[in-house]
Backbone:
């Protein structure tokens, strides 16, 4: 949701506050290189900003929120692959 601020920035532009940068969905598939068979699929949808507070919206803050979301997905992927490899080696 976009909320116009009641004040103007020094350059005379209206400032906007948002409660969410937006949402994104990551779809990851592991396929066989020859058969194109899907062996695993992971889908994760998240809001880019989930602080439950209003924040000033600009290019820098929006980019930071998207990068934070990307880092979180990278962390989840690494943890999942580590678990898959560890569990696979124990069987």
Residues:
């Amino acid at each position: 949701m976009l909320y116009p601020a009641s004040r103007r920035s020094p350059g005379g532009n209206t400032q906007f506050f948002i409660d969410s940068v937006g949402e994104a969905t990551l779809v990851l598939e592991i396929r066989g290189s020859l058969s194109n068979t899907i062996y695993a699929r992971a889908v994760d949808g998240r809001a880019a900003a989930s602080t439950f507070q209003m924040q000033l919206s600009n290019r820098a803050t929006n980019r930071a929120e998207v990068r934070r979301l990307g880092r979180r997905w990278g962390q989840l992927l690494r943890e999942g692959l580590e678990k898959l490899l560890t569990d696979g080696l124990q069987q």
Notes: The chain has one domain: 2-83.
